[in-house]
Amino acid sequence: MATFKENHEILALTTEWRSGVGVLSGVSGLDGSRLERPYFDDVSPRNVSSVVGQVAVLRCRAKHIGNRTVSWMRKRDLHILTSHIFTYTGDARFSVLHPEPSDDWDLKIDYVQPRDAGVYECQINTEPKINMAVMLTVEAAAATIWGSQDVYVKKGSTISLTCSVNVHSSPPSTASILWYHGNSVVDFDSPRGGISLETEKTEGGTTSKLLVTKAALTDSGNYTCVPNNAHPASVSVHVLNGEHPAAMQTSNRASSYLTSQLSCAIFTYLLSSVVCR
């Protein structure tokens, strides 16, 4: 017969499921004590996007781990990257963020590269082992100019071009993004005057707004936004001297139609000449 002490050590286990991860949560004894096996507090995003050259943080919150260990593994090659607070890779870009005494065991990747994209698993060495997968997507650093690729403005009005870059410059400054008009850098101190630039840091990166007041016909041409850490973007600006772009486009279509009809007539005439001979 079991002693009172032995009975006291008998534990009743119940299993419940949280966010698709099996959690062995009910651990109780005769004295009413209750322990809880580790589980993931599934409040962090399972899909993370980062930009080449930036920092990526894959979050993992592990509850009630006790004396167990939290590790991060790269799924594509099954390489253990970190275990507890230690790093087990020669790539110094990888590290674990674990501010004591929190339950957070976040994987930090500095200077993200395209090859870093893929699935990573946060693991707890229970028996059986439990894990939580996080997908990392890596985007190219690139600029985007808002609106159409062709911008039409009336002579004397203001040319307004806004360029967004999906990376941050710290701190944001006019030097972080250059604007070109054709092959020349836009000169804000030129005798022409009326040219200004506003650069600011946004949640998604950096935004640069170019303003050219009192647009002249010579302000037409190709404008390019060139960040110092991303691919550039360009638009074509057309300064119109009283002509509406819709009318200009209609005129172009009419011209193309007349050219097509004339070509057809010439071809028909030549063909009939050959047949008659």
From TrEMBL:
Stored SUPFAM superfamilies? Immunoglobulin
Q: For this chain's UniProt record, which GO biological process terms are given?
A: synapse organization
Its GO CC terms? Answer: neuron projection membrane
The Ig-like domain is annotated at: 38-125, 128-236
The protein's name is Ig-like domain-containing protein
Q: Species name for this entry? A: Arctia plantaginis
Q: Taxonomy-wise, where does this protein's organism fall, top ranks first?
A: Eukaryota, Metazoa, Ecdysozoa, Arthropoda, Hexapoda
